[in-house]
Model the fold of this input.
Amino acid sequence: MLTIVKTPPTVAALRTIAIGGGLGFALGLGSFLAGTAPAAAAPGDWRAGCQFRNIPGGAADGIRYDACMHQRDCQLLANAAGRTIFESGCFWVSPEQSEPSTQRPAPPPPPAR
Done:
């Protein structure tokens, strides 16, 4: 027959404190890492990972291709609207800034006579 042994209240309290402290530490560390890691790892341009020459045949590449096409569509919507998009499954997609021109400006027209 099994004998049930009761845990003394002080041991149960110490176990609860240890588990709570461990969970609190883990949650604090996780939230700290989650708050700093994405900003450091975020690419500056989504196009760097979306350079496909044709539609991929594999399942994983197909999922990535679909995500890239969705991001491209979101970018086109934001550019057309001229504001940050929060609809159609697009969140925080800002319109692209026009690149400064690297060409020399056109010379002024000659003075009229």
Residues 7 and 13 are 10 Å apart (CA to CA). Helices lie at 9-41, 59-81. The two ends are 117 Å apart (CA to CA).
